Amino acid sequence: MKTTIGHKHQPKFDIHPFYVPIKTKFWISHSFSFLWMCFSIYLAYPWLMDLADIISFPFALIIIAGISYIPGYMNAFLIASLLLDKQPPFKHEYPSEPITLLIAAHNEEDNIVNTLHYVSKQDYHGEIKVILINNCSTDQTVKRALEAKKELNLDLDILHEEPPGKFHALNRGLTAVKTSYVITLDADTLLHPSAVRFLVARMKSSPSDVCAVAGSVLVKNSRENIWTKIQEWDYFLGIASIKRLQGLYQGTLVAQGAFSLYKTAAIKEVNGWPDAIGEDIVLTWRLLEKKWKVYFEPLAVAFTEAPSTLKHFIYQRSRWARGMIEGLAEVKPWQQPQLYTKYLTGINLVMPFLDIAYTFFWIPGLILAFFGFYWIVGPMTLLVLPLTLISYSILYMYQSKYVFKRLNLKIRKNIFGFILFILGYQMIMSPVSVYGYFQQFFHVERRWK
Protein backbone atom coordinates (compact mmCIF):
# COMPACT_ATOMS: atom_id res chain seq x y z
CA MET A 1 0.00 0.00 0.00
CA LYS A 2 1.23 3.48 -0.84
CA THR A 3 1.52 6.00 1.98
CA THR A 4 0.90 9.75 1.67
CA ILE A 5 1.64 11.60 4.87
CA GLY A 6 -0.82 14.21 6.02
CA HIS A 7 -2.37 15.56 9.20
CA LYS A 8 -5.55 17.26 8.04
CA HIS A 9 -8.66 16.72 10.13
CA GLN A 10 -10.69 13.68 9.16
CA PRO A 11 -14.28 12.87 10.19
CA LYS A 12 -14.80 10.46 13.04
CA PHE A 13 -16.51 7.10 12.65
CA ASP A 14 -20.25 7.13 12.18
CA ILE A 15 -22.24 5.91 15.16
CA HIS A 16 -25.32 3.70 14.96
CA PRO A 17 -28.50 5.61 15.94
CA PHE A 18 -29.16 3.07 18.67
CA TYR A 19 -26.95 0.67 20.55
CA VAL A 20 -27.04 -3.08 19.93
CA PRO A 21 -25.47 -5.06 22.79
CA ILE A 22 -22.57 -7.35 21.91
CA LYS A 23 -24.44 -10.40 23.19
CA THR A 24 -27.33 -9.58 20.84
CA LYS A 25 -24.90 -9.24 17.90
CA PHE A 26 -23.36 -12.57 18.84
CA TRP A 27 -26.66 -14.46 18.77
CA ILE A 28 -27.96 -12.67 15.68
CA SER A 29 -24.80 -13.70 13.84
CA HIS A 30 -25.15 -17.29 15.05
CA SER A 31 -28.80 -17.43 14.02
CA PHE A 32 -27.97 -16.23 10.52
CA SER A 33 -25.08 -18.67 10.13
CA PHE A 34 -27.18 -21.57 11.47
CA LEU A 35 -29.95 -20.82 8.96
CA TRP A 36 -27.39 -20.63 6.17
CA MET A 37 -25.94 -23.99 7.16
CA CYS A 38 -29.41 -25.56 7.22
CA PHE A 39 -30.04 -24.15 3.75
CA SER A 40 -26.74 -25.54 2.44
CA ILE A 41 -27.42 -28.96 3.99
CA TYR A 42 -30.79 -29.04 2.26
CA LEU A 43 -29.31 -28.10 -1.12
CA ALA A 44 -26.38 -30.50 -0.73
CA TYR A 45 -28.49 -33.52 0.25
CA PRO A 46 -28.33 -35.15 -3.23
CA TRP A 47 -24.55 -34.60 -3.25
CA LEU A 48 -24.28 -36.28 0.16
CA MET A 49 -26.33 -39.28 -0.99
CA ASP A 50 -24.34 -39.70 -4.20
CA LEU A 51 -21.04 -39.59 -2.34
CA ALA A 52 -22.39 -41.96 0.33
CA ASP A 53 -23.08 -44.55 -2.37
CA ILE A 54 -19.38 -44.49 -3.20
CA ILE A 55 -17.60 -44.26 0.18
CA SER A 56 -20.30 -44.86 2.88
CA PHE A 57 -22.58 -42.32 4.56
CA PRO A 58 -20.47 -41.49 7.67
CA PHE A 59 -17.33 -40.87 5.65
CA ALA A 60 -19.25 -38.79 3.10
CA LEU A 61 -20.78 -36.72 5.91
CA ILE A 62 -17.35 -36.06 7.43
CA ILE A 63 -15.91 -34.95 4.08
CA ILE A 64 -18.79 -32.64 3.16
CA ALA A 65 -18.91 -31.18 6.67
CA GLY A 66 -15.19 -30.37 6.43
CA ILE A 67 -15.27 -28.74 3.00
CA SER A 68 -18.77 -27.22 2.92
CA TYR A 69 -21.03 -27.23 6.01
CA ILE A 70 -18.61 -25.93 8.63
CA PRO A 71 -16.74 -23.44 6.37
CA GLY A 72 -20.11 -22.10 5.21
CA TYR A 73 -21.28 -21.68 8.79
CA MET A 74 -18.08 -19.85 9.75
CA ASN A 75 -18.18 -17.56 6.71
CA ALA A 76 -21.83 -16.71 7.38
CA PHE A 77 -20.99 -15.88 10.99
CA LEU A 78 -18.14 -13.67 9.79
CA ILE A 79 -20.40 -11.78 7.36
CA ALA A 80 -23.10 -11.16 9.93
CA SER A 81 -20.56 -10.02 12.51
CA LEU A 82 -18.83 -7.64 10.10
CA LEU A 83 -22.15 -6.09 9.16
CA LEU A 84 -23.03 -5.56 12.82
CA ASP A 85 -19.59 -4.31 13.85
CA LYS A 86 -19.00 -0.63 14.39
CA GLN A 87 -15.75 0.66 15.81
CA PRO A 88 -16.59 3.09 18.64
CA PRO A 89 -15.14 6.62 18.43
CA PHE A 90 -12.09 7.53 20.48
CA LYS A 91 -12.63 9.25 23.80
CA HIS A 92 -8.98 10.36 23.87
CA GLU A 93 -7.53 10.68 20.36
CA TYR A 94 -4.32 12.44 21.45
CA PRO A 95 -3.03 10.63 24.56
CA SER A 96 0.26 11.66 26.12
CA GLU A 97 1.17 8.86 28.56
CA PRO A 98 4.81 7.77 28.34
CA ILE A 99 5.25 4.39 26.68
CA THR A 100 8.04 1.91 26.09
CA LEU A 101 8.60 0.25 22.74
CA LEU A 102 10.37 -3.15 22.73
CA ILE A 103 12.18 -4.36 19.62
CA ALA A 104 13.68 -7.84 19.72
CA ALA A 105 16.34 -8.13 17.03
CA HIS A 106 18.37 -11.00 15.61
CA ASN A 107 20.58 -10.10 12.62
CA GLU A 108 18.50 -7.12 11.48
CA GLU A 109 21.21 -4.78 10.15
CA ASP A 110 19.31 -4.35 6.85
CA ASN A 111 16.07 -3.30 8.52
CA ILE A 112 16.70 -1.71 11.91
CA VAL A 113 17.62 1.80 10.74
CA ASN A 114 14.47 2.15 8.65
CA THR A 115 12.33 0.77 11.48
CA LEU A 116 13.79 3.28 13.95
CA HIS A 117 13.37 6.08 11.41
CA TYR A 118 9.61 5.47 11.30
CA VAL A 119 9.48 5.29 15.07
CA SER A 120 11.07 8.74 15.23
CA LYS A 121 8.37 10.14 12.91
CA GLN A 122 5.43 9.28 15.18
CA ASP A 123 2.93 12.06 15.89
CA TYR A 124 2.40 10.73 19.42
CA HIS A 125 2.27 13.49 22.05
CA GLY A 126 3.88 11.48 24.83
CA GLU A 127 7.40 10.22 25.47
CA ILE A 128 8.46 7.09 23.56
CA LYS A 129 11.23 5.08 25.17
CA VAL A 130 12.76 2.54 22.76
CA ILE A 131 14.49 -0.59 24.06
CA LEU A 132 16.27 -2.73 21.48
CA ILE A 133 17.11 -6.23 22.68
CA ASN A 134 19.95 -7.73 20.70
CA ASN A 135 19.44 -11.50 20.64
CA CYS A 136 22.59 -13.27 19.44
CA SER A 137 23.12 -11.09 16.37
CA THR A 138 26.29 -11.79 14.41
CA ASP A 139 25.98 -8.83 12.03
CA GLN A 140 26.03 -5.05 12.47
CA THR A 141 22.56 -4.71 14.06
CA VAL A 142 23.84 -2.94 17.19
CA LYS A 143 26.17 -0.64 15.29
CA ARG A 144 23.41 0.43 12.89
CA ALA A 145 21.02 1.02 15.80
CA LEU A 146 23.54 3.22 17.62
CA GLU A 147 24.11 5.25 14.46
CA ALA A 148 20.33 5.70 14.08
CA LYS A 149 20.02 6.72 17.75
CA LYS A 150 22.46 9.56 17.22
CA GLU A 151 21.12 10.62 13.82
CA LEU A 152 17.43 10.52 14.83
CA ASN A 153 17.92 11.77 18.40
CA LEU A 154 16.04 8.77 19.78
CA ASP A 155 15.63 7.81 23.43
CA LEU A 156 17.09 4.37 22.77
CA ASP A 157 18.67 1.79 25.05
CA ILE A 158 20.26 -1.43 23.83
CA LEU A 159 20.16 -4.60 25.90
CA HIS A 160 21.80 -7.94 25.15
CA GLU A 161 20.24 -11.35 25.68
CA GLU A 162 22.36 -14.41 24.98
CA PRO A 163 19.86 -17.32 25.15
CA PRO A 164 18.36 -17.53 21.65
CA GLY A 165 14.62 -17.05 21.28
CA LYS A 166 12.28 -14.12 20.85
CA PHE A 167 10.55 -14.78 24.16
CA HIS A 168 13.92 -14.55 25.95
CA ALA A 169 14.60 -11.20 24.29
CA LEU A 170 11.19 -9.73 25.07
CA ASN A 171 11.30 -10.86 28.70
CA ARG A 172 14.74 -9.29 29.05
CA GLY A 173 13.31 -6.04 27.71
CA LEU A 174 10.32 -6.29 30.04
CA THR A 175 12.64 -6.11 33.07
CA ALA A 176 13.68 -2.61 31.95
CA VAL A 177 10.17 -1.26 31.29
CA LYS A 178 9.18 1.54 33.69
CA THR A 179 6.02 2.75 31.95
CA SER A 180 2.42 1.57 32.37
CA TYR A 181 2.15 0.67 28.70
CA VAL A 182 4.52 -1.32 26.51
CA ILE A 183 4.46 -1.87 22.74
CA THR A 184 6.19 -4.70 20.90
CA LEU A 185 7.44 -4.04 17.39
CA ASP A 186 9.23 -6.38 15.00
CA ALA A 187 12.60 -5.16 13.78
CA ASP A 188 11.47 -5.23 10.12
CA THR A 189 8.13 -3.48 10.68
CA LEU A 190 7.45 0.14 9.70
CA LEU A 191 4.90 2.29 11.52
CA HIS A 192 2.43 4.67 9.96
CA PRO A 193 3.06 8.13 11.51
CA SER A 194 -0.11 7.86 13.63
CA ALA A 195 0.20 4.16 14.52
CA VAL A 196 1.33 4.57 18.12
CA ARG A 197 -1.16 7.37 18.78
CA PHE A 198 -4.14 5.34 17.57
CA LEU A 199 -3.00 2.24 19.45
CA VAL A 200 -2.73 4.09 22.76
CA ALA A 201 -5.92 6.08 22.01
CA ARG A 202 -7.89 2.85 21.66
CA MET A 203 -6.51 1.59 24.97
CA LYS A 204 -7.34 4.89 26.73
CA SER A 205 -10.86 4.84 25.22
CA SER A 206 -11.55 1.26 26.33
CA PRO A 207 -12.93 -0.21 29.57
CA SER A 208 -10.47 -0.83 32.39
CA ASP A 209 -10.49 -4.61 31.84
CA VAL A 210 -8.89 -4.25 28.38
CA CYS A 211 -5.23 -5.22 28.77
CA ALA A 212 -4.01 -5.25 25.17
CA VAL A 213 -4.75 -3.76 21.77
CA ALA A 214 -3.53 -5.42 18.59
CA GLY A 215 -2.49 -3.17 15.75
CA SER A 216 -3.30 -3.71 12.07
CA VAL A 217 -0.36 -5.26 10.21
CA LEU A 218 -0.19 -4.97 6.41
CA VAL A 219 2.40 -5.94 3.78
CA LYS A 220 5.04 -3.41 2.78
CA ASN A 221 6.85 -5.44 0.08
CA SER A 222 3.82 -6.50 -1.96
CA ARG A 223 5.42 -5.47 -5.25
CA GLU A 224 8.39 -7.77 -4.81
CA ASN A 225 6.96 -10.91 -6.48
CA ILE A 226 3.85 -13.04 -6.83
CA TRP A 227 4.13 -14.48 -3.30
CA THR A 228 4.07 -11.06 -1.69
CA LYS A 229 1.28 -9.89 -4.03
CA ILE A 230 -0.93 -12.74 -2.80
CA GLN A 231 -0.03 -12.17 0.83
CA GLU A 232 -0.94 -8.49 0.54
CA TRP A 233 -4.58 -9.54 0.16
CA ASP A 234 -4.32 -12.06 2.96
CA TYR A 235 -3.21 -9.36 5.40
CA PHE A 236 -5.53 -6.69 3.97
CA LEU A 237 -8.67 -8.84 3.82
CA GLY A 238 -8.22 -12.27 5.40
CA ILE A 239 -6.34 -11.52 8.60
CA ALA A 240 -7.99 -8.12 9.05
CA SER A 241 -11.48 -9.60 8.79
CA ILE A 242 -10.72 -12.19 11.47
CA LYS A 243 -9.20 -9.50 13.70
CA ARG A 244 -12.31 -7.35 13.36
CA LEU A 245 -14.55 -10.31 14.15
CA GLN A 246 -12.56 -11.17 17.25
CA GLY A 247 -12.26 -7.55 18.30
CA LEU A 248 -16.04 -7.13 18.11
CA TYR A 249 -16.42 -9.92 20.67
CA GLN A 250 -13.64 -8.49 22.87
CA GLY A 251 -11.37 -11.46 22.40
CA THR A 252 -8.75 -10.77 19.74
CA LEU A 253 -6.91 -14.10 19.88
CA VAL A 254 -3.48 -12.82 18.93
CA ALA A 255 -2.08 -9.51 20.10
CA GLN A 256 0.72 -10.12 17.61
CA GLY A 257 4.29 -9.39 18.59
CA ALA A 258 4.82 -7.52 15.32
CA PHE A 259 2.84 -4.54 16.64
CA SER A 260 0.66 -4.57 19.75
CA LEU A 261 0.16 -2.56 22.92
CA TYR A 262 -0.07 -4.13 26.38
CA LYS A 263 -0.56 -3.00 29.94
CA THR A 264 2.81 -3.71 31.53
CA ALA A 265 1.23 -4.93 34.78
CA ALA A 266 -0.91 -7.46 32.89
CA ILE A 267 2.13 -8.90 31.10
CA LYS A 268 3.99 -9.26 34.37
CA GLU A 269 0.95 -10.85 36.02
CA VAL A 270 1.17 -13.79 33.57
CA ASN A 271 4.98 -13.96 33.93
CA GLY A 272 5.84 -12.41 30.59
CA TRP A 273 6.18 -14.12 27.25
CA PRO A 274 6.17 -17.95 27.39
CA ASP A 275 8.68 -20.41 25.98
CA ALA A 276 6.65 -21.13 22.85
CA ILE A 277 7.08 -20.85 19.10
CA GLY A 278 3.85 -18.84 19.13
CA GLU A 279 4.77 -16.78 22.17
CA ASP A 280 2.31 -14.00 21.30
CA ILE A 281 -0.57 -16.48 20.86
CA VAL A 282 -0.01 -18.22 24.20
CA LEU A 283 0.53 -14.89 25.94
CA THR A 284 -2.76 -13.52 24.60
CA TRP A 285 -4.68 -16.61 25.66
CA ARG A 286 -3.19 -16.42 29.15
CA LEU A 287 -4.36 -12.82 29.38
CA LEU A 288 -7.86 -13.79 28.24
CA GLU A 289 -7.88 -16.59 30.80
CA LYS A 290 -7.33 -13.94 33.51
CA LYS A 291 -10.63 -12.30 32.46
CA TRP A 292 -8.84 -9.51 30.63
CA LYS A 293 -10.10 -8.35 27.23
CA VAL A 294 -8.05 -7.80 24.07
CA TYR A 295 -9.13 -5.27 21.42
CA PHE A 296 -8.10 -4.58 17.84
CA GLU A 297 -7.50 -1.13 16.36
CA PRO A 298 -7.64 -1.03 12.51
CA LEU A 299 -6.30 2.55 12.37
CA ALA A 300 -3.05 1.60 14.12
CA VAL A 301 -1.34 0.47 10.93
CA ALA A 302 2.12 -1.03 10.57
CA PHE A 303 3.77 -2.54 7.50
CA THR A 304 5.73 -5.77 7.73
CA GLU A 305 8.05 -7.72 5.44
CA ALA A 306 6.11 -10.69 4.06
CA PRO A 307 8.05 -13.84 3.05
CA SER A 308 9.15 -13.47 -0.56
CA THR A 309 9.97 -17.14 -1.20
CA LEU A 310 7.83 -20.26 -0.88
CA LYS A 311 10.36 -21.74 1.57
CA HIS A 312 10.11 -18.82 3.99
CA PHE A 313 6.34 -18.66 3.55
CA ILE A 314 6.03 -22.32 4.53
CA TYR A 315 8.25 -21.77 7.54
CA GLN A 316 6.28 -18.74 8.74
CA ARG A 317 2.79 -20.15 8.31
CA SER A 318 3.64 -23.60 9.65
CA ARG A 319 5.07 -21.81 12.70
CA TRP A 320 1.79 -19.96 13.11
CA ALA A 321 -0.10 -23.27 12.94
CA ARG A 322 2.20 -24.73 15.59
CA GLY A 323 1.62 -21.67 17.74
CA MET A 324 -2.12 -22.23 17.60
CA ILE A 325 -1.70 -25.82 18.79
CA GLU A 326 0.57 -24.60 21.58
CA GLY A 327 -2.12 -22.16 22.64
CA LEU A 328 -4.78 -24.89 22.69
CA ALA A 329 -2.53 -27.13 24.76
CA GLU A 330 -1.70 -24.33 27.20
CA VAL A 331 -5.20 -22.88 27.69
CA LYS A 332 -8.17 -25.05 26.79
CA PRO A 333 -11.17 -23.19 25.28
CA TRP A 334 -13.45 -24.39 28.06
CA GLN A 335 -11.06 -22.83 30.58
CA GLN A 336 -11.72 -19.38 29.16
CA PRO A 337 -13.98 -17.47 31.57
CA GLN A 338 -15.99 -15.49 29.00
CA LEU A 339 -18.55 -16.79 26.51
CA TYR A 340 -17.04 -15.06 23.50
CA THR A 341 -13.49 -16.23 24.12
CA LYS A 342 -14.72 -19.77 24.75
CA TYR A 343 -16.29 -19.68 21.31
CA LEU A 344 -13.43 -17.93 19.52
CA THR A 345 -10.72 -20.19 20.92
CA GLY A 346 -13.03 -23.17 20.43
CA ILE A 347 -13.07 -22.45 16.69
CA ASN A 348 -9.36 -23.23 16.68
CA LEU A 349 -10.16 -26.77 17.81
CA VAL A 350 -11.94 -27.21 14.48
CA MET A 351 -9.23 -25.64 12.30
CA PRO A 352 -6.93 -28.72 12.11
CA PHE A 353 -9.92 -30.80 10.93
CA LEU A 354 -10.80 -28.21 8.28
CA ASP A 355 -7.21 -27.95 7.05
CA ILE A 356 -6.88 -31.75 6.90
CA ALA A 357 -10.22 -32.02 5.07
CA TYR A 358 -9.18 -29.36 2.57
CA THR A 359 -5.74 -30.92 2.03
CA PHE A 360 -6.71 -34.57 1.75
CA PHE A 361 -10.28 -34.33 0.40
CA TRP A 362 -10.93 -31.03 -1.36
CA ILE A 363 -7.67 -30.82 -3.33
CA PRO A 364 -7.85 -34.46 -4.54
CA GLY A 365 -11.56 -33.85 -5.27
CA LEU A 366 -10.63 -30.84 -7.41
CA ILE A 367 -8.23 -33.02 -9.39
CA LEU A 368 -10.97 -35.61 -9.88
CA ALA A 369 -13.38 -32.88 -11.01
CA PHE A 370 -10.85 -31.80 -13.63
CA PHE A 371 -11.20 -35.27 -15.15
CA GLY A 372 -15.00 -35.21 -14.94
CA PHE A 373 -15.56 -37.00 -11.62
CA TYR A 374 -17.60 -34.66 -9.42
CA TRP A 375 -17.76 -36.95 -6.39
CA ILE A 376 -16.21 -34.54 -3.89
CA VAL A 377 -15.88 -31.18 -5.64
CA GLY A 378 -18.93 -30.14 -7.60
CA PRO A 379 -21.42 -27.30 -8.00
CA MET A 380 -22.49 -27.46 -4.33
CA THR A 381 -18.98 -26.68 -3.11
CA LEU A 382 -19.27 -23.31 -4.82
CA LEU A 383 -21.80 -22.26 -2.15
CA VAL A 384 -18.89 -21.19 0.04
CA LEU A 385 -17.46 -18.86 -2.63
CA PRO A 386 -20.24 -16.21 -2.59
CA LEU A 387 -19.95 -15.92 1.19
CA THR A 388 -16.20 -15.45 0.91
CA LEU A 389 -16.57 -12.74 -1.75
CA ILE A 390 -19.28 -10.97 0.27
CA SER A 391 -17.19 -10.93 3.45
CA TYR A 392 -14.14 -9.63 1.58
CA SER A 393 -16.25 -6.97 -0.18
CA ILE A 394 -17.57 -5.73 3.16
CA LEU A 395 -14.07 -5.52 4.59
CA TYR A 396 -12.65 -3.92 1.42
CA MET A 397 -15.20 -1.11 1.68
CA TYR A 398 -14.49 -0.71 5.38
CA GLN A 399 -10.72 -0.63 4.90
CA SER A 400 -11.02 1.81 2.03
CA LYS A 401 -13.50 4.22 3.63
CA TYR A 402 -12.71 4.14 7.33
CA VAL A 403 -9.02 3.20 7.46
CA PHE A 404 -7.08 4.10 4.32
CA LYS A 405 -8.96 7.32 3.61
CA ARG A 406 -8.44 8.57 7.16
CA LEU A 407 -4.75 7.63 7.14
CA ASN A 408 -4.13 9.16 3.68
CA LEU A 409 -3.20 5.75 2.26
CA LYS A 410 -3.96 4.40 -1.18
CA ILE A 411 -4.80 0.81 -2.05
CA ARG A 412 -2.41 -0.52 -4.65
CA LYS A 413 -3.82 -2.08 -7.81
CA ASN A 414 -3.10 -5.77 -7.47
CA ILE A 415 -5.82 -7.57 -9.44
CA PHE A 416 -3.69 -10.56 -10.41
CA GLY A 417 -2.68 -11.12 -6.79
CA PHE A 418 -6.35 -10.88 -5.73
CA ILE A 419 -7.46 -13.50 -8.27
CA LEU A 420 -4.75 -15.90 -7.15
CA PHE A 421 -5.60 -15.18 -3.51
CA ILE A 422 -9.28 -16.06 -4.03
CA LEU A 423 -8.72 -19.11 -6.24
CA GLY A 424 -5.51 -20.67 -4.99
CA TYR A 425 -4.34 -19.32 -1.65
CA GLN A 426 -6.15 -21.86 0.50
CA MET A 427 -4.69 -24.70 -1.57
CA ILE A 428 -1.30 -23.55 -0.29
CA MET A 429 -2.30 -22.50 3.22
CA SER A 430 -4.07 -25.68 4.33
CA PRO A 431 -1.25 -28.11 3.43
CA VAL A 432 1.27 -25.74 5.06
CA SER A 433 -0.86 -25.61 8.21
CA VAL A 434 -1.14 -29.40 8.25
CA TYR A 435 2.66 -29.52 7.99
CA GLY A 436 2.83 -27.26 11.05
CA TYR A 437 0.43 -29.49 13.00
CA PHE A 438 2.60 -32.52 12.26
CA GLN A 439 5.72 -30.61 13.29
CA GLN A 440 4.14 -29.84 16.63
CA PHE A 441 2.82 -33.38 17.07
CA PHE A 442 6.28 -34.87 16.48
CA HIS A 443 8.03 -32.12 18.51
CA VAL A 444 10.25 -30.87 15.67
CA GLU A 445 12.92 -28.48 16.95
CA ARG A 446 11.77 -24.86 17.11
CA ARG A 447 13.70 -21.83 15.92
CA TRP A 448 13.01 -18.09 15.90
CA LYS A 449 14.37 -17.11 12.47
TrEMBL record:
Superkingdom per UniProt: Bacteria
Regions crossing the membrane: 26-45, 57-84, 356-377, 383-404, 416-438
SUPFAM superfamilies in the record: Nucleotide-diphospho-sugar transferases
Any coiled-coil regions, as ranges: none
Gene3D superfamilies on file: Spore Coat Polysaccharide Biosynthesis Protein SpsA, Chain A
EC number: 2.4.-.-
InterPro entries tied to this protein: Nucleotide-diphossugar_trans
GO molecular function: glycosyltransferase activity
Keywords: Glycosyltransferase, Membrane, Transferase, Transmembrane, Transmembrane helix
Family membership: Belongs to the glycosyltransferase 2 family.
Name of the protein described by the UniProt record: Glycosyltransferase
Lineage: Bacteria, Bacillati, Bacillota, Bacilli, Bacillales
